[in-house]
Amino acid sequence: MKELLTSTVILVILTAASTAQAASIYAGKSTAAAVCSQCHGIRGTSADAPFPPLAGRDEEYLEMALKQYRDKTRVSDIMNNIAGSLTDRDINNIASYYSRLKIR
Amino acid sequence: MKKAIIKLNRSILLGVSSFILSISCVQASSDIHKLYEDNCASCHGSDHGGYLAPALNSETLKGRSPTALRTLIMTGSFETLMPPFFGRLGDKDIRSLVKHLQSTPKLDNPPWTIEDMKASLKVYVKDESKLPAKPTYQIDSMDDLIGVAARGKYGRGSGSKAVFINSKTHKIVGEIETGTAAHIIDFDPANERWAYVKTDTAEIFKVDLYSMKAVRSIKTGYNGPGMGVSRDGKYVMAGSFVPHNAVILNANLEPLKVIELEGVDPDGKMVSSDSGMIIGTPYADIFAIALENAGQVWVVDLKEGFPITKIKNVGRHLHDAFLTHKGQKLMIASYDDSVVIAIDLKDRKIIKKLKAGCVPHVGGGAAVKIDGRTLGFGTNFGTCENNTVVSVWDLDKMELVKQIPVSGGTESPAAHANAPYVAVDIITKDRRARTIQLIDKKSFKVVKTLDVGGHAYFPEYSADGKFLYVSAGYAGDEVVVYDSHSLKKVASVQMESPAGIFSRGRVKYMTRGLSPDEME
User: What ipTM was predicted for this assembly?
Assistant: First the structure.
């Protein structure tokens, strides 16, 4: 009985977690690795690189910036192109992933 | 008369303007070559002939769209070391670089003479007697040191360094900035305080491991990773891809003799050759050097005049090798004919050529004692009949024992007498590149695949065999440490684009996998 209770509790927690964030962080990780990390790194960028690090940045800010780049309300040759290929969901995932990473 | 003056004036004007034009052209083309040297050459070769990265010249880039090349330079290339130059180079520079690359043929080897080398010697610590008498940091044994060659994102800059880690605490104990990408770290077998670091632009740094300072450096060429240290620690030898030569240095990095690398290849053609691996051996006072393109192995005796014995017809495209049998035998891989060749360094003869694997790249090699036999584990870049394998052969009999299927091409095996698995890095350019595979020494089967992240390569065990270090290179930017038995991740060490990992323990067991207690 106790076991059943425990596993139910775990199940509930897991479900809650996955609907809230878990799945998107995982997807964000692979999108970040494939799309962003080449320039922005994962936990940090090269000291010699002109690109801002994304790890640990505010989630809402990241989301807003990416959407502005996509809509071309913020202008950058490279970022307009790259963000242009991202869906709303990709952007949420990426922002969610990077904002939760600890900075190097 | 007036007319004549006008004519004269005109011709002076023409002369002057063409003179100015030619100056500005020379200026522009030397500027652009400097741009190439400063940003591209450490990977693509100072002669435009390719090195770690493809050759960039009028032949190889013929017909390529300049726009596509410009984009590639700006954004970099995923799954490779090519970084994005957006923001580092201006649009104008990138455009002129593309133009320059598409119009420049592969250059003749630029000379780098013994005089150039001597002039490049830098002394950072004048009085070595004032260096500390023991390590200035906590470490049980210097064998616990692990050196990592960090490339730096751009193959140069502040991220390019040799990083030394205490493999018991997994903490960084020292860093040596190398300017350009560090590639090889060799430890002095005779004196634990010294190590040598070689960069992709062929500088060698002599490092005092007690104080973690570079004491000297010298530029031995333009490009090339080849380096070895003699068993008595008295000599260092370095070889280059550009130009085609090798140099013997004393332990103060003073060049003693330069050797031109050329010879008749197995197909009867006289060729000038890149330098492949260079190795010192505990067996004798010699260096062995592979001539990549000439397919020869040269044995250099470390005595008056440095006489050379040339072993010819070894194979087509030799690259790396490892030692066995107390350092008397050399196992060298030949890419183009997919054989591993055993060479006896005593008789200086080929013992046997063994068909093993496909495009074998044995890396630092691994030799493992299993049930009374000593077996070599060889990694392979290439694919054999739809299969990628790790080749295992009997090092005494030179007979193939097994081709173990693995999930992709591999370039470096790690083994340790006290660790149950042989680790190999999967380099196939897709998600598999993030992984390494662990082969059980008993069953010869892959028992585990670890997702390390980044481009995972160059596994290495700590000297006690308790930990497995792996570089998560490219965008991974960390070295990941696993417990060698449980394979659980125990630590991560951050650095920019880590590549080769070198345990000081190697000087004890010579080849990874052999017992550290008795030289075999």
Answer: 0.73
